[in-house]
Amino acid sequence: MTGTRLIGWPLVDLSRAPNGPRDRQLLMGEAVDLTDAPAPPSSSGLTRGSPPGWLRVRARRDGYPGFVPEAALTPDTPVTHRVCARATHLYPAPDFKTQERAMLSLGARLLVRGAADRFAETPHGFVPRAHLAPLDVPETDPVAVAGRLIGTPYLWGGNSALGIDCSGLVQVACLACGIPCPGDSAEQQAALGAPLPEDATLGRGDLLFWRGHVGWVADPGTLLHANAHHMAVAYEPLHDAIARIEAQGDGPVTARKRLRAAG
């Protein structure tokens, strides 16, 4: 089976195997390409197709492969807006006193097909207009985007306001600013920005990489990152973070990279 689909659930794990461990997550409205590559071998060593209810996909945003439940997918249709707030709710009617249907995270994508007072009408329900931004108008400050997720619990492989990891925090901020971004920190180190010398003065929007970790420079003395030390997205004094990460056995900074200047 081939073709393109959209994620129709608010949030879904991109799993390494059917019912397997999470590698990343996908948000409502994100596009995936269906792939017909063989599924992993079974315990008997024989190659088998995807089990009923699961499909092998590749995320359009970064090429990340994995499996998702077939029920999480909807036909490929246009999307026009993205959630620009930390999180928002879907309502069955343009009334915030009605029982919400679901929560949507920063970065979720929707087709807006009309307006009703303070709400935007979408195929899934109504969303506060103040929480949406047009897809064709990118943001200019990735650190400001990442900062909306302060306090979000750390979650390995997470990509949402319910839980996020270090590379997820970098990716959601880059994508909001129209910057293509891989899903894992090692690939981000290779793909993002221009290298800075070790003695360069760091500025807002620079990225620091370690072996298996990445964080945003919020200002010359502050790091913004999702980390297992705080188990959350947190600000941390930059020199303290560098010393702590090395002391815990993860080594020194492996790269300093500079993206385009924030507007």
UniProtKB/TrEMBL annotation:
UniProtKB keywords: Hydrolase, Protease, Thiol protease
Parts forming coiled coils: none
Gene3D superfamilies to which the protein is assigned, alphabetical: endopeptidase domain like (from Nostoc punctiforme) (3.90.1720.10)
PANTHER family hit by this protein: NLP_P60 DOMAIN-CONTAINING PROTEIN-RELATED, PEPTIDOGLYCAN DL-ENDOPEPTIDASE CWLO
Family: Belongs to the peptidase C40 family.
The keyword Protease appears for this protein: yes
Region (Disordered): 34-53
Domain NlpC/P60: 135-260
Pfam annotation, one family: NLPC_P60
Protein name: NlpC/P60 family protein
